[in-house]
Here is the input.
Amino acid sequence: MNTGFPIRHILTGLLALAGLYLAFVLYRTGNVLIAFAVLVVTCLGVFIYLNASATTFRYLFPGFIGFGLFVLLPLVYTIYIGFTRYSSQNLLLFDRCVALFRNETYTLPNAVSYKYRLYAQDDGTYILYVEDEKNPARRFASDPFELIVSPKPKPPPEPVKLNALSASDQVQGKPMTIVQINRARLLSPLRGRAFVMPDDTLVAMAGLTNFTARERLWAQNPDGSLTNKKDGTVIRPDYKQGFFVNDKGERVGVGFRTFSGFENYSRIFTDPRIAAPFVRIFLWTVAFSAASAFLTFAVGMLLAVILEQKDLRFRKVYRTLFILPYAVPGVLSILILKGLFNQEFGAINEVLRAVFGFAPAWETNPWGARAMILLVNLWLGYPYMMLICTGMLQSIPSGIYEASAIDGSNARIDFFELTLPLVLPPMIPILISTFAFNFNNFNLIYLLTAGGPQMVGGAAGETDLLVTYTYNIAFRDSGTNYGLAGAIATLLFILVGILAWVNLKLTARQVKI
Amino acid sequence: MKRLPPEPQITAANKESAASDVKAAAGVGEQPVVSTPRAAARKIKPEQKAGIRQAISHVILICLLALVLVPYIMVVSASFRRGNYAPSGLLPDKVSLEHWKYVLGVPYEEIANPATGETHVVKAETPPLLWFWNSIKVSSIASVGIILLSGTAAYAFARLKFKFKSVTLSTLLILQMFPMVLALVAIYSILDFLGQYVRWLGLNTQPGLILVYLGGISGYIWMIKGYFETIPESMEESARIDGASQFQTFIRILLPMSLPIFAVVFILSFIAFMSEYPVASIVLQDRSNWTLAVGANSFLAEHEKLWGRFSALAVLSGLPITVMFLLCQKFIVGGLTSGGAKE
Here is the structure.
């Protein structure tokens, strides 16, 4: 009955080959550690799928790989970033930072000048061709490279390699005239690129029509410092600041990433620009999550109880329609409600103005914005609670209500003294997980208010949750700080992790009863 | 009355605790019951009372239902209204199909200058319908991947014995609580690195995004494991005695019996991925690569809010998903009560 036997071996072999190839490529490009990790995982995979004693792990291995790569690894990396200085100021790895200095050039008087031509390739890349103006036998062509006008300032790209051409070699692609280059807006990206000759000297664009040889500005010294060849100044890396500094202690050039220990953590609690909003945001996050869990539960329960009346007509229709906010993709619902809550033109304020003569400031008043967020989250979240409560109500034997009816009870007493005590214990894990889910409800806040309105001082938004606050620290265009974001993310994870752990314990106890 | 699909854990625990409470309630009931005047009064007109209760119920339900339905009706009407105004009003005043044409990528004429009546042709550079298609592709492939990964792992957790089983599962569930948004820097770096070696798995590719989504399996493992545990092991045991291998009992016996839970996992993860915004917005940069969530939000940029186009796209893409969800409602409700929130 071992029909699947050879297939397993073939599949394992193919995957192992892919793994080995990847490890080889990684090793060749200098990522020795990562190559080793890939090798270890590949060997582990081969062992698990071929050795009879490891059958259990055959079922776990694929899941663990996915989980490890995209949950565990990012988690560990984020925690690690939390202990480093890593921001828009200290963006590059040390080696890249040094390479940047090494790419800085200056023109020597009477430097060699080159004619050039740009060849467009079919796949959107370009090849640069240069020819010595005085000695046309010296011809070079670059590897294909991309020229993109990026809207965001990025670290300058690596120099492109130029390869020597023999007299008979032709360059592939369509040659472009200077007018075409200009019209395609390629001039400025081209001017920003450096090209490196086979003998490791650099050439760069000098005018519209020619390239010139350039001299490297910084010479590397054995002790890690750099010497400016033009004026002779020496700069040294300061690993604490993450910058190169000159003899006067002034920073030179761009910063590099560096290990900073608990610096980010101490900033969270001591730097008033961070600590003050942090505490407020934390309190609002807790209040928002708790209120959301409670409100959705209350409304969901109410609907479940009403819809559980056996003699009610159209129960099925009602139930289906009430599930709608859960069935429609959340992103769409949030954006729709954002439109309705629009302060000036939104439908809600139009109605309120017409009927009651007042229009709450859902967008500019902090409390208005908070109320809106809770209302929207209630609207989005009650169907889930309704479904869960319905399931629980249906598992309560009807006998107990008959018994209490004989005892002279009424609907209110039934609910508060029989139903609720029965439903609440199994509800607690669900309430906690709802709390934890809302604690990190990024989509809702980001799409609905984007954290706004701004707090006085502008450090954060009044409706920011910790998760959106952290996201802004990491990704907002002005002054991204990955290190600080990593530290807050770690704290956040510890908080939510504890919640999840408590929740698991509670659930486990209930299952065992 | 229809019962919910068979449900593990919580419901089961419920029944037991409910049963013990029944005994308690019965104990109370054993006390001599004296017919009080109040109880007698209740028996006078039970039909009337039920009638009032029903009327009140209907009033509450209809009021709440109006709050739920009105926004959707408004969006449908906004998608048919000329001009890009925020949804308001139940019926469009100036009916126009311009937004639908835009979303479907059909060219249409728009008045460029009201004074002269001059018109120009508008056509979407990337038809927003493409975003919906991208989302369907990404979400369904990722969901199938999730089922493969979490289904096999759940089998190990439900049926096999290995060291540190419960600790491993708890660890998976706790680690999954780390919000993906905050790991974006790391995810970005990983994809960037991967893209240098395997270009079609890197940044700005849909396979790369799918790969990132495949990490989120813990909750689904928990769900499927719960379902597996409600299926008696005896059938698999007898198949083993007949000479079937472990893998065969898993594929041929357990899987066919567990199709409902896989349907639930597919739908829930599909909807979760359809709604996922932050990761998709960072990973996918080209307009033609965008998913529905990223594209829909792009219509509502701070400086120019194109509500009409957004509404048409929302209706077009929201409708099929909603209908699919409602059709599978029965399964989903069962799956939900087995634990794990919608994320």
